[in-house]
Amino acid sequence: MQGMQYSRHNIFSQVRGREQWFLVNLLSGQADLLTRDVADAVSAGSPPPAAFADTFIQKGYWVEPAEEQRRYEAAYARFTAAAAKEEIQLFFLLSYACNFTCDYCYQSGYDPEQALDRAAATDAFFAYVDTHFRGRRKYVTLFGGEPLLPGNMEHVANIIGKLNARALGLAIVTNGYTLLDYLPLLKTAAIREVQVTLDGPPALHDARRPLGGGLPTFDRIADGIDALLAAGIAVNLRTVLDRENLGGLPELARIAKARGWVGHPKFKTQFGRNYELHYCQGNAGRLFDRLSMWEAVVALAKEHPEVLEFHRPALSISRYLFENGALPDGLFDSCPATKSEWAFDYTGRIYSCTATVGKEGEELGRFWPTPTPLSAAAGEWSSRNVTTIPQCTTCALQLACGGGCGAVAKNTSGSILSPDCRASRELMELGFDLYQTDLEHEAIHA
Prior knowledge:
By secondary structure, the protein is of the alpha/beta class. It has helices at residues 36-44, 50-58, 65-84, 118-132, 153-165, 179-186, 202-208, 218-230, 249-258, 290-303, 305-310, 318-324, 376-383, 398-401, 406-413, 424-435, and strands spanning 5-6, 10-14, 21-25, 30-34, 62-63, 88-93, 138-143, 169-174, 191-197, 235-241, 267-273, 341-345, 349-351, 365-366. Among the domains are: 5-81 and 437-442, no CATH class; 86-313, Aldolase class I (TIM Barrel). Strand 3 and strand 4 (30-34) form a beta hairpin.
């Protein structure tokens, strides 16, 4: 075993709350639970004892460095080839205006709306798409602000007509308040999904996400979700979590189950984290960091199983592994900006993604009224992955984390080519505890 060493892609730790350890390697595609005797050897960094050395070599935990580097380069080549063919999501912001006054809105400090020729901007947007994304699989997502404002009906109908003429799909990110009004129009489009936000049961949601003037919104949104599902339109229900509304998840889960959403083939959920993106929140004390949020969610789900029926968190690769019996491919890049995602707004500006759209200084170019070439920053966004972020290149977690969100990294450090670390090891510790049943008999032991 001369010249051999532990793989630089090994992720090793103890399962949270258990006398078990795990060893994961996303380059070799292997994951194992370890008993204490084997874990002690791995922790010490000494060569694996003869009893399980062959297993470690076969699974890529104990490697010859040059050979592992060749496998890494081959995996990266496969990743880049697949990324070049990936479907592109094109966000189009109809306005930054909104009929809600959510207390954590990151766009609330943006400049006032401009009176512009939105029909001309829409024509220019589609002309740009036809030219610059010709030959690529793509779809358009309406975003805002709130895209489905009462006064936008004619504008949305125009967009749907242009999409249908090009056989392009449509997704919508909406607060959901006008879904019932828009449903007849939405039925004429090739809807991929509608993302709607509910932040808890009625009283909690209404306090966080009221209509302008403080009026409640939960019941009308929930009725809209019912109508979408009845029409066969997919719903992606998002809940934005912080310390103030986490405790409402069990009741929201029960409501979703009672209304027939949970288990519906067209219904899925996601949890978002309320965090500082473009400016400092007035009540930052309510914010979770990424790890503390998922620790709180897992603790709540153990006490209230209905939460886990409502949403099964990924916890890095944990859920995927236990649902599929295999690991996902290594994640060389977790930031879609300028690769599989672009954002365009009604003023004619082009941005890297939804996390930068509208922010002063983040504009990459213009498609209207006077088109301009993309700036050098666009190339920096496009090149961002774990091979170009210096801190990622030597990190064992790189293929689990993928470098994180570029917008958050830039907002934190000032550099696009910096990491947004995801606490992947700690999330696996939680996930291996939450999702495994009794797998002790499968653990590697001497």
